[in-house]
């Protein structure tokens, strides 16, 4: 899938071409959902992020500039920001009255996300990484982006991406040493 | 010695050090296709001639395998249908009223169970809260100049006329 093909589809989509919209969804919905799923360790949240990302794409379509940003980069960037917003909203807050937080009895979405114990531990270790390290690993390792494309998604330089990747992977290797040696 | 690839990037043709190779593995893992293209050939040459490089590569592969164990979230079949139902429609440039109609249709497609009055009420409440917050809180308290909601960097074209409702 090339940038010029995506640009042409965006032009057609902005004119209300349903087939072009379908092609865009077919090309990009799966990677966007997979990216959000690995960032969030939650299938439902991933689907909502993907949905919101495409809703913004339809809104953006009339303003799309051919030859500008890669569509995949734009989609990953929107999905990344939406996912980070969700991650930040999940963080526990201190009760205002100094009382004790009620116990959260909802099922852990990470349990449903990863079926086996190894995958659960990997998902948990990945979720514990700083947001940018986690995103860099998912973009480059799982989504197969080059360091330059990952840099464009994260809004940093290529060297910064390499540093984020190296720090993140070193931390993961330490935390998952038992599994790695098995 | 260097050359360049089709993207105008410099291709490293001189040998790379074992330290640089270790850094590559730390960052990109053991799969050569994930290494930067400009250093890939030199790194593969090192692997071919260095037992130490191959040992480092085997070690890096263990983490790659663990990362590959993560499941893939697949979109549900009806998500595609909902997205297409919310897609732009053909015709001349829409008026503000037509755009609001498109917004209403999009919300209806994405959240079909939502009662019709709620989006308008939610928008009005959000607008009122924003005005009150902006009017009464000092700038530093509301983080003026900081982008806390990262998802907001893409702006919507919701230029509704004053007094016009969504529904």
Provide an overview of this structure.
The complex is a heterodimer of chains A (182) and B (167). Chain A has helices spanning 3-14, 18-40, 43-60, 71-90, 109-113, 117-128, 131-142, 147-154, 158-175, 177-181. Chain A is an all-alpha fold and 182 residues long. Chain A folds into two domains: 1-91, Rna Polymerase Sigma Factor, Chain: A, CATH 1.10.1740; 114-182, Winged helix-like DNA-binding domain superfamily/Winged helix DNA-binding domain (Arc Repressor Mutant, subunit A, Orthogonal Bundle). The longest helix of chain A has 23 residues, at 18-40. Chain A is globular and about 55 Å long. Chain B is built from six helices and two strands, in the order ββαααααα. Chain B is elongated. Chain B has two domains: 2-68, no CATH class; 77-153, no CATH class. A two-stranded antiparallel ribbon of chain B has the order 1-2. With 167 residues, chain B is mainly alpha-helical. Chain B is 51% helix and 4% strand. The chains are: A mainly alpha (182), B mainly alpha (167). The interface between A and B is large, with 65 and 41 residues.
Count of DSSP strands of chain A: 0
**Strand pairing plus helix content of chain B: what structural class?**
mainly alpha
Major sheet: arrangement of strands of chain B: 1-2
What kind of sheet is the major sheet of chain A? none
Here the CATH topology of the largest domain in chain A equals Rna Polymerase Sigma Factor, Chain: A
CA gyration radius of chain B, whole angstroms = 27 Å
Distance between the termini of chain A: 39 Å
Shape of chain B: elongated
Give the amount of beta strand of chain A, in percent.
Answer: under 5%
Classification by helices and strands of chain A: mainly alpha
Q: Identify the most extensive interface between protein chains.
A: A-B, 65 and 41 residues
* Overall pLDDT of chain A: 88
Span from first to last CA of chain B?
66 Å
Under CATH at level 1, the class of the largest domain in chain A stands as: Mainly Alpha
Number of helical runs of chain B? 6
User: DSSP helix count of chain A?
Assistant: 10
Give the integer mean of the pLDDT values of chain B.
71
Order of helices and strands of chain B: EEHHHHHH
Backbone CA Rg of chain A: 18 Å
The coarse overall form of chain A would be globular
**Percent in strands of chain B:** under 5%
């Amino acid at each position: 899938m090339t940038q010029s093909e995506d640009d042409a589809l965006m032009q057609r989509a902005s004119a209300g071409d349903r087939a072009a919209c379908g092609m865009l969804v077919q090309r990009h919905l799966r990677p966007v959902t997979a990216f959000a799923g690995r960032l969030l360790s939650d299938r439902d949240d991933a689907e909502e992020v993907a949905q919101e990302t495409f809703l913004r794409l339809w809104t953006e379509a009339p303003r799309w500039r051919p030859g500008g940003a890669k569509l995949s980069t734009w989609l990953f960037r929107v999905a990344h920001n939406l996912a980070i917003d969700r991650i930040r909203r999940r963080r526990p807050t201190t009760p205002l009255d100094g009382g004790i937080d009620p116990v959260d009895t909802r099922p852990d979405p990470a349990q449903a996300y990863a079926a086996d114990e190894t995958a659960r531990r990997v998902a948990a270790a990945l979720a514990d990484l700083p947001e940018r390290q986690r995103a860099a690993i998912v973009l480059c390792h799982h989504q197969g982006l080059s360091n330059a494309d990952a840099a464009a998604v994260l809004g940093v330089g290529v060297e910064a991406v390499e540093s984020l990747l190296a720090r993140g992977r070193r931390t993961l290797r330490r935390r998952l040493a038992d599994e790695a040696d098995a | 010695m260097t050359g360049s690839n089709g993207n105008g990037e410099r291709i490293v043709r001189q040998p790379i050090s074992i330290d640089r190779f270790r850094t590559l593995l730390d960052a990109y893992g053991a799969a050569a296709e994930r290494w930067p293209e400009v250093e890939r050939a030199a790194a593969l040459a090192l692997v071919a001639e260095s037992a130490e490089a191959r040992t480092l590569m085997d070690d890096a592969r263990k983490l790659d395998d663990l990362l590959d164990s993560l499941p893939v979230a697949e979109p549900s079949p009806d998500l595609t249908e909902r997205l297409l139902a919310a897609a732009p429609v053909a015709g001349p440039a829409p008026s503000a009223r037509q755009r609001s109609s498109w917004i209403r249709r999009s919300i209806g497609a994405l959240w079909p169970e939502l009662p019709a009055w709620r989006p308008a009420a939610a928008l009005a409440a959000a607008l009122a809260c924003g005005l009150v917050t902006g009017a009464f809180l000092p700038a530093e308290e509301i983080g003026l100049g900081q982008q806390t909601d990262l998802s907001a960097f893409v702006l919507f074209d919701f230029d509704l006329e004053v007094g016009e409702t969504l529904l």
